[in-house]
Amino acid sequence: MMTTLPLDTLRNEFGPRLQENVQLAHYTTARVGGKAGALVVIQSSSEFASAAAFLWSHMLEFTILGGGTNILISDEGLPGVVLLNRARGIRIDTHSSVPVAWAEAGAGLAALAHQSALRGLSGLEWAAAIPGTVGGAVYGNAGAFGGDTATTLLLAEILDPQDGKVSLSAGDLHYEYRRSCLKREQSQAIVLSAAFKLETSTREAIQEKMVANSEKRHSSQPPGASLGSMFKNPPGDYAGRLIEAAGLKGKRIGGAEISSQHANFVINDDSARAKDIYQLVVLARDTVRQQFGVNLELEIELLGTFGQEI
After folding, report:
1. Where along the chain do the CATH 3.30.43.10 domains lie?
2. Which residues make up the CATH 3.30.465.10 domain(s) of the chain?
3. In 10 A of CB 300, how many CB atoms?
4. DSSP code string of 18-60
5. Looking at the predicted structure, is the pLDDT value of residue 310 above 90?
6. pLDDT tens by residue, 174-232
7. Which residues pair with 104 in a beta bridge?
8. 299 included as an active-site residue
9. Model pTM?
10. Average pLDDT score over residue span 137-155
11. Four-way CATH pick for 8-85: 3.10.180.10, 3.30.43.10, 2.70.70.10, 3.50.50.100
């Protein structure tokens, strides 16, 4: 991969869609992270495919940002180009034998769930309070309240640098808890869009379930700027319970704090740096391992350079 950004080439290709020297903290839910030398705003899946193909052809490294959830970007920022995916098209097919909700990868997962509910279509109630995007859900098998991407995905349209566009089912993506083959293998392939299978119900029944899920989520998860859950739940236990039992609730480093409401969340008080959050993540991982012999696995993704590997 090329180490120096050819800005003239990027300007010629992307024109006014190219932004330079961009502070990435503005595009993450944790509100931390350094700069990108180049950022391109993507407005459609066709733009997404074209931009990725161009960058691959020029051997340029790139990172995709969607809703900015479940990621920690280092204070040094990111090399290469950042593609900010704002491709948010949604289409609901109510006429086929199995109703289908289709969306571009940059669409909000919650928005897709709510638009399906308005048409009396059930299947995405679990997603109604999840803040991430459809692309992130496909990539990481997002889930909540007994539902997940693996059980509702019909097909995902994937663009691979070698194979071009392919349609993959949930089985093809080899889903595991909060993982797919794309995430597990750190594939270069990108998610362009996805279709989810639904079933007919009533607006009232769907709304009732979505409200209950939303209330439960808001009562258990802390407000404020955060990454989301730091760690996956280990088999038969909860990461938050282990971190709390290790005595780390309320632990602060700089402007970051392990939430006193839910210990699997780190909250930024608006003065935190990425290194503060990272140090708390490492502390929680190491302390739980030392006290309980449990190796917590990250649910968040680390983007950029951090001093200590985890």
Report:
1. 8-85
2. 90-220
3. 21
4. EEEEEEGGGGSTT----EEEEEEEE-SHHHHHHHHHHHHHTTB
5. no
6. 999 989 999 888 889 999 999 999 999 999 999 999 999 888 887 778 888 999 899 99
7. 193
8. yes
9. 0.91
10. 93
11. 3.30.43.10
Known catalytic membership, residue 229: yes
- CA dist 251 and 269 (Å) reads 13
Domain range 90-220, CATH class: alpha beta
CB atoms within 10 A of CB 157: 20
Choosing from 178, 179, 273, 285, the catalytic residue is 178
pLDDT at residue 309, rounded to an integer? 58
> Is the CATH number 3.90.78.10 carried by domain 225-303?
yes
- Catalytic annotation, pick one of 193, 229, 244, 257: 229
Give the per-residue pLDDT at 49. Answer: 97
Residue 157 designated active-site = no
Backbone angles phi, psi at 28, to 5 degrees: -130, 150
Give the Cα separation of 185 and 179 in Å (integer): 10
CA separation for the pair 38, 295 (Å, rounded): 37
| Cα–Cα distance, 147 to 142 (Å, whole number) | 9
Under 8 Å CB-to-CB from 193, ≥6 apart: which residues? 45, 89, 102, 103, 104, 105, 134, 156, 157
* Core vs surface per residue 243-259: b (16+ CB within 10 A) or e: bbbbebbebebebbbbb
Task: Give the three-state DSSP class for 201.
Answer: coil
Boundaries of CATH 3.90.78.10 in the chain?
225-303
